[in-house]
Amino acid sequence: ARQGLADNELRDTALPDLLRMARQHAWTGIGPGNFSTGFTAYNTLKLQEFYNEAHFDGLQFLIETGIPGTLLLAFIVMYCALRGLQALMHSHSRLLQGTGFAVTMSVGAGLMHSWVEYNLRVPATASVFVVMLALGVIASTLPDKKPQPGQKTSS
């Protein structure tokens, strides 16, 4: 009866089970990479399709790593994003400002995309996201000289 449901309908159907799973494993999680086996015990609707992802990055990370792992990830992402924003707002170099802008925009877009899709499961997307986070820290720690009066401001 549930065969052929669209991906969005599957997400809505599975959400109560996913939230129950997250509540029951809030502090320890079920372990990274164990979602597909762990979900079988919570699948009360007996979805016909093999449900190997939570279809929401944040919820899957919470289920797999618990609150401590999720808070650690949130701290790392916010720290790197704020460092990118710092490079954007306080650097004198156009190159560092541009890097800070790119980091701020891509991290913001990546987080928005992760809210409605599970895009970080794709290794290439996750790798680009991590590189952008690293660039935020790099851009804020590179030496940045204030230009002398009359000196051209370039990269």
Give a short overview.
This protein is mainly α.
Question: SSE layout and pairings?
Answer:
Elements: H1 7-24, H2 35-39, H3 57-90, H4 94-116, H5 123-141
Helix pairs in contact: 1-3, 3-4, 3-5, 4-5
Structure commentary:
This protein is mostly helical. The protein has helices at residues 7-24, 35-39, 57-90, 94-116, 123-141. The chain is elongated. The termini are far apart.
Characteristic terms for this protein:
155 residues, mainly alpha, 5 helices, elongated
User: What is the helix/strand order?
Assistant: HHHHH
Helices, by number, come to: 5
Q: Note the gap between the termini.
A: 61 Å
Oligomer classification: single chain
Biggest beta sheet summary: none
| Class from helix and strand fractions | mainly alpha
Helical content (DSSP H or I, runs of 4+): 55-70%
Strand content: under 5%
Overall spatial form: elongated
Mean of the pLDDT scores? 83
Instruction: Give me the Rg, rounded.
Output: 20 Å
Tell me the number of strands: 0
Flag low-confidence runs. none
